C-alpha cells in the first residue's frame, strides 16, 4: 500500500528503462487529430445502399395495417421491409442479452415510442428518409404503462401479450442477503432511518450514435459487418445463433468507436435490419441512426425506484442495510448483465462498510418504454447500489448529527479484514479505505470547507459539501458463475513477436476511447521488455483476434489486461529457453533484466529479447524440443472480480435567487490498484465525473402520461458542457489486487459510479437550512427551487 | 444544382441536391470524413468546420450556402506533415479519448486562438461551450488549448522550442517532458 498525493507516477522499476508503465502519449491519437479516425459511418463500399427505420409515434398500439406501396415507388428506393415480411423468415423477433425476446420490427403491437416498425433501403440516405414519410401505418392506440408503480396494478394494460400466458407486466423478482437476520438487527437497533430514492432513467448518449454497415457476399456466403459494438465476438456468436449463418462466415468489425459507455453492448434491431437488407438486396447496406433514434430507442440506464433503510447504534455504528427496489426494464428485458445477475451487481449495495446484515428485495416490471437497463458506465448497476448506500449513509449522519466523513471512517471495512465477504456474498479482494478517505479530505481541506460553510450559512449563502465513498466490483468475471447467454466471461489474448523483435498483440476487448492501443502495449512492454512503440495492438475484428466478451463493466484491464500480461510471460518463458541455448547456460542461470536475459554473476553475457526473436525465427539451432517462432495465446478466466474503491468530495454553491447549483470543486481520489498509464487513468476519471454532474444535475429521460419520450434530442436531454463542470482535482492510492497478475483493478466506470451521490449529498447539505433531508436527481433549478420551498418530490 | 466552394484551399465544384447539408457534402461527396455528425440539432458540435474562418456547425448549413466561400475542415488544419499546435496540444494533454468530438473541438480552439492568442481557462470553456465531449470531462481539452497557446507564444518569441521548455512542463501535469515514456 502506497499513498501518493501528487499527480505524478513513479517509474514502476527504478531502472529508467523506457518500457512499461507510466505516462505515455496515446498511440491512437495521431490519426484522430488528423481527422483520420475510422468510424463506422466512415466506411464506404462500392454500391453502398442506405437504410432508414420507420419508428412508432406512439408508446402502445396494435398495428392494424401497413401500406408500403407509395414508399416502394419512391425514387431511389430498393426495398421496403415490414415485420410481417421478417416473420416469414423467422426473423421478426430476436433474443435479448437477458434471455427475453425483442421485436426486430413490430408485427403485432408497438410497445414503446420509437420502436422499429419498418425499414427502407435506398440509394442515398435522403431518399431513404423521404420514403419513410410515405409508409402508411394504421394504429389502434392502447393505454400505455408509463409509471413502474402502475405496472403491477391488476387493471394495468398487459404489454407483453406476445409471451404465452402472460397476464401482467411482471418481469422478474430477485433478492439477496438474509431477510430474517436483517429484520432482527433492525428490530434491536437504536436508530433506523429510511428514505425513498429515485435513480431516474438516463441515457449514455455517446457522441457517435449506433450504426452498422452490412456486406453479405452471397458467393462466399460470408457476412462482413462493421458495427458500433463494444463486444464484437459476442455479437458474432449471437448473429450466428439468430440468423443461422455459420459463425466462421461472419466477420464483425468494430472499428474506431465514438464512445460507448454501455450503449453499444446490446444488439439493436437496426443491426439486424442492415444484415437482412444486405442479404435481400445483394449490396452493402449502411444504417446510421440519428440522435433522436439513439435517445428514444437504444439502451437506457438506471430507472430504479428504491427504498433504502439503515440501522445503526446511537454512537454511529452501522448495523444493517435493507432495500426494496422497483426496477423499470422497459418493454423488453434487454439488460446486458451476466445471466445469474438479473439486477447486475446491485448486490454490492452494502458499500464499503463492515455491517452485520443486509437484505434486498427487487421487483422488475415491463413498461411502455425503450428496453435496456444496464448502461452508462454503471459497472452492472453498481451506480444504483453506490447511490443508495451513500445517500442513506448521509441520511443516517443527518439523523445522528454526525459528520458524514466521520461516520464513514467509523464503519469502513478494515484493511486486515480483506479478503472480505459481504453479507450479500461478494468477496472484496483488497482495500485500504481510510488512507483514501483521508487523502481526499486533505486535498479538499475538509475542515476548512466546513468552517467556510458555517460562515456562509450565517450570511444566508448556500454552500454544500458532499462525500461519497465507493467500492466497485468489476472485471466480470469468473466463468463458473458468470456468462452472457451461455458465453463464459473469459477473454483471450495473443502475442506474436516478429523476427526483428517488434510485436503484435491481439485482443478480444474493444476500445471506445479508453486507449487500449496504448495501455495494452504498455502492459506487454512491461512484461517482455519490448518498447510499447514497437508493439502494435489489434482489436475489434473477429477474424483477426481471439474470442472474448468485449469491453464494458470496466473489464478490459481486469480481464484482458491480465490475459495480456500472462501471454507475455508465456512468451518470455519460451524466450528464456531459447536464451539459455544462445548463451549455453541452463535456464536457472539466467536472470531477466527487462528486455534481456543475462547470465547470473556474469552481466557481460546477455541476449536481448530482439536477439532471441531473431533466433527463434532463424536458421540456427534451438534447444531440444523448442519449436520455432516466438508467440503464444491464452484465454484468461478471472478467479474473482476486482474491487476498486475511491473517495469523492464535492463542493457546491447554490444561488438562492435562482436555485442554480454550481459545482465549485470536485476532489476524486481513486484506488484502482496498479496503475499502468496515469494520464489515461486521469482521463477516465475526468470523463466519469462529468457524467456524474450530468446525471445529478441535468440528465433525465422523462416521459409524459401518454408515453411520449421527452428526452429525445440534445435540446431536451441536457448533457454537461465545459461550463457546467469544474477543473477536477484527482489523487490516488494504490492497493493492488492480490489475484490479478499485475495487481490492476480497472477504473473506467469508477467516477460515474462514485460522483452522483457526492453531488447529491452536497446539494442536500447546502439545503440543510431549509430542512431538506433528500432531493432526487436531476437537481435542476426548478427541482431545487421546489425543494427549498418544502416541495421536494420524486422526478417520476 | 451546381455548387463551387474552396475546401482546404482547393476549389471544388459538384452537382448536388439543394437540400444537401454541408456536413454531408464534406463527408459523402468529398470523402472528408474527419468532420462528424452527432445530433442534427446544433447541440453537439462534432460537425464544426470553418466558413470563411469562422466556426460553424455544418449540420445546420446547406452546402449551397457555402458556395463561393472558403471552408476549412480538420483535414486542413495541419500544414502538410506539420501538425498545428492545437493538434499537438490535444495529443500532449490527453484532450481526446474516443476522438469523435475532437475535430470540431480543435477547429473551435484554433479559431479561438486566432482571435485571442492567450485565452484564459474561462475563455476556453466559453469558446467550446457549444460542443459536447462525453469522454474527457473537458479539463484536458482546456489544458490542450492552453498548451497550444503557450507553444505558439514561445514560437513567436523565437524561443528555442523543445518539449522540455518550462511552459510545456507547466502544462504537462506529469511534470516531466511531455511525450516522454516513463
From TrEMBL, chain B:
Signal peptide: none annotated. The keyword DNA repair does not apply. Keywords: 2Fe-2S, Iron, Iron-sulfur, Metal-binding, Oxidoreductase. Gene3D superfamilies: 3.10.20.30, [2Fe-2S]-binding domain. The keyword Iron applies. Residues 160-182 are annotated as: Disordered. Residues 1-77 form the 2Fe-2S ferredoxin-type domain. This is (2Fe-2S)-binding protein.
Amino acid at each position: 500500500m502506497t499513498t501518493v498525493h501528487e499527480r505524478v507516477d513513479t517509474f514502476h522499476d527504478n531502472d529508467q528503462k523506457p518500457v512499461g508503465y507510466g505516462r505515455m502519449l496515446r498511440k491512437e491519437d495521431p490519426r484522430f487529430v488528423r481527422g483520420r479516425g475510422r468510424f463506422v459511418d466512415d466506411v464506404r463500399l462500392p454500391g453502398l445502399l442506405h437504410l432508414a427505420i420507420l419508428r412508432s409515434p406512439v408508446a402502445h398500439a396494435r398495428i392494424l395495417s401497413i401500406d408500403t406501396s407509395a414508399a416502394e415507388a419512391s425514387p431511389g428506393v430498393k426495398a421496403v421491409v415490414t415485420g410481417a415480411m421478417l416473420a416469414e423468415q423467422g426473423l421478426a423477433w430476436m433474443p435479448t442479452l437477458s434471455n427475453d425476446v425483442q421485436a426486430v420490427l413490430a408485427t403485432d403491437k408497438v410497445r414503446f415510442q420509437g420502436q422499429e416498425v419498418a425499414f427502407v433501403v435506398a440509394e442515398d440516405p435522403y431518399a431513404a428518409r423521404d420514403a419513410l414519410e410515405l409508409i402508411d401505418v394504421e394504429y389502434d392506440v392502447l393505454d400505455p404503462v408509463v409509471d413502474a408503480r402502475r405496472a403491477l396494478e391488476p387493471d394495468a394494460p398487459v404489454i407483453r401479450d406476445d409471451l404465452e400466458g402472460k397476464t401482467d407486466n411482471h418481469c422478474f423478482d430477485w433478492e439477496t442477503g438474509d431477510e430474517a437476520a436483517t429484520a432482527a438487527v433492525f428490530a434491536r437497533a437504536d436508530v433506523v432511518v429510511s428514505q425513498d430514492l429515485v435513480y431516474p432513467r438516463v441515457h449514455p448518449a455517446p457522441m457517435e450514435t449506433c450504426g452498422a454497415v452490412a456486406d453479405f457476399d452471397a458467393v462466399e456466403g460470408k457476412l462482413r459487418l462493421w458495427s458500433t459494438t463494444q463486444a464484437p465476438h459476442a455479437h458474432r456468436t449471437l448473429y450466428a445463433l439468430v440468423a443461422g449463418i455459420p459463425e466462421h462466415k461472419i466477420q464483425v468489425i468494430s472499428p474506431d468507436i465514438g464512445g460507448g459507455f454501455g450503449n453499444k453492448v446490446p444488439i439493436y434491431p437496426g443491426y439486424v435490419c442492415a444484415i437482412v437488407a444486405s442479404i435481400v438486396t445483394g449490396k452493402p447496406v449502411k444504417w446510421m441512426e440519428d440522435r433522436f433514434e439513439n435517445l428514444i430507442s437504444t439502451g437506457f440506464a438506471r430507472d430504479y425506484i428504491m427504498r433504502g433503510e439503515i440501522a445503526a447504534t446511537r454512537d454511529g455504528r452501522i448495523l444493517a442495510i435493507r432495500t426494496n427496489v422497483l426496477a423499470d426494464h422497459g418493454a423488453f428485458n434487454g439488460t446486458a448483465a451476466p445471466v445469474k445477475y438479473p439486477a447486475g451487481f446491485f448486490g454490492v449495495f452494502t458499500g464499503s462498510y463492515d455491517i452485520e446484515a443486509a437484505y434486498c428485495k427487487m421487483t422488475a416490471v415491463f413498461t411502455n418504454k425503450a428496453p435496456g437497463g444496464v448502461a452508462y458506465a454503471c459497472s452492472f448497476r453498481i451506480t444504483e447500489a453506490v447511490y443508495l448506500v451513500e445517500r442513506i449513509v448521509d441520511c443516517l449522519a443527518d439523523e445522528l448529527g454526525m459528520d458524514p466523513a466521520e461516520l464513514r471512517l467509523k464503519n469502513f471495512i478494515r484493511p486486515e479484514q480483506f479478503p472480505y465477504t459481504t453479507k450479500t456474498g461478494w468477496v472484496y479482494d483488497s482495500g485500504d479505505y481510510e488512507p483514501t478517505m483521508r487523502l481526499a479530505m486533505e486535498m479538499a481541506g475538509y475542515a476548512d470547507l466546513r468552517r467556510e460553510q458555517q460562515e456562509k450559512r450565517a450570511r444566508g449563502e448556500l454552500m454544500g459539501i458532499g462525500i461519497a465513498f465507493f467500492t466497485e466490483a468489476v472485471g466480470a468475471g469468473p466463468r463458473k458463475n458468470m456468462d452472457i447467454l451461455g458465453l463464459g466471461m473469459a477473454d483471450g489474448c495473443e502475442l506474436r513477436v516478429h523476427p526483428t523483435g517488434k510485436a503484435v498483440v491481439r485482443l478480444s476487448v474493444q476500445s471506445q476511447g479508453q486507449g487500449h492501443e496504448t495501455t495494452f502495449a504498455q502492459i506487454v512492454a512491461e512484461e517482455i521488455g519490448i518498447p510499447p512503440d514497437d508493439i502494435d495492438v489489434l482489436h475489434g475484428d473477429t477474424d483477426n483476434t481471439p474470442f472474448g466478451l468485449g469491453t464494458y463493466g470496466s473489464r478490459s484491464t481486469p480481464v484482458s489486461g491480465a490475459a495480456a500480461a500472462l501471454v507475455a510471460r508465456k512468451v518470455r518463458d519460451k524466450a528464456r529457453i531459447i536464451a539459455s541455448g544462445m548463451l549455453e547456460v541452463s535456464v536457472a542461470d539466467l536472470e531477466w533484466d527487462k528486455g534481456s536475459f543475462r547470465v547470473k554473476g556474469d552481466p557481460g553475457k546477455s541476449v536481448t529479447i530482439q536477439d532471441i526473436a531473431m533466433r527463434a525465427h532463424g536458421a540456427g539451432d534451438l534447444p531440444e524440443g523448442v519449436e520455432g517462432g516466438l508467440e503464444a495465446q491464452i484465454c484468461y478466466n478471472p478467479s474473482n472480480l476486482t474491487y476498486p474503491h475511491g473517495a469523492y468530495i464535492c463542493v457546491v454553491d447554490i444561488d438562492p435567487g435562482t436555485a442554480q447549483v454550481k459545482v465549485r470543486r470536485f476532489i476524486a481520489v481513486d484506488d484502482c490498484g496498479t496503475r499502468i498509464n496515469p494520464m489515461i487513468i486521469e482521463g477516465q476519471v475526468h470523463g466519469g465525473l462529468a457524467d456524474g454532474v450530468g446525471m445529478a444535475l441535468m440528465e433525465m429521460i422523462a416521459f409524459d402520461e401518454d408515453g411520449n419520450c421527452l428526452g429525445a434530442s440534445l435540446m431536451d436531454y441536457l448533457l454537461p458542457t465545459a461550463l457546467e463542470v469544474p477543473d477536477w482535482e484527482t489523487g490516488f492510492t494504490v492497493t493492488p489486487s492480490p489475484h490479478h497478475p499485475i495487481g490492476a483493478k480497472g477504473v473506467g466506470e469508477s467516477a460515474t459510479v462514485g460522483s452522483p451521490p457526492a453531488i447529491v449529498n452536497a446539494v442536500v447539505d447546502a439545503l440543510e437550512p431549509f430542512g431538506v433531508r433528500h432531493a432526487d436527481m436531476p437537481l435542476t433549478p426548478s427541482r431545487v427551487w421546489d425543494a427549498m420551498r418544502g416541495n421536494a418530490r420524486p422526478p417520476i | 444544382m451546381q455548387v463551387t466552394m474552396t475546401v482546404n484551399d482547393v476549389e471544388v465544384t459538384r452537382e448536388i441536391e439543394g437540400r444537401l447539408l454541408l456536413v454531408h457534402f464534406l463527408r459523402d461527396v468529398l470523402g472528408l470524413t474527419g468532420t462528424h455528425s452527432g445530433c442534427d440539432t446544433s447541440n453537439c458540435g462534432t460537425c464544426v468546420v470553418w466558413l470563411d474562418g469562422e466556426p460553424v456547425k455544418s449540420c445546420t448549413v446547406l452546402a449551397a450556402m457555402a458556395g463561393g466561400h472558403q471552408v476549412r475542415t480538420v483535414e486542413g488544419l495541419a500544414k502538410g506533415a506539420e501538425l498545428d499546435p492545437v493538434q499537438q496540444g490535444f495529443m500532449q494533454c490527453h484532450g481526446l479519448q474516443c476522438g469523435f468530438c475532437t475535430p470540431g473541438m480543435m477547429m473551435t480552439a484554433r479559431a479561438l486562438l486566432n482571435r485571442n492568442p492567450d485565452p484564459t481557462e474561462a475563455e476556453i470553456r466559453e469558446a467550446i461551450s457549444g460542443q459536447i465531449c462525453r469522454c474527457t470531462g473537458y479539463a484536458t481539452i482546456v489544458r490542450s488549448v492552453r498548451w497550444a497557446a503557450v507553444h505558439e507564444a514561445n514560437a513567436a518569441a523565437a524561443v528555442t522550442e523543445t518539449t522540455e521548455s518550462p511552459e510545456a512542463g507547466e502544462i504537462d501535469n506529469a511534470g516531466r517532458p511531455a511525450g516522454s515514456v516513463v
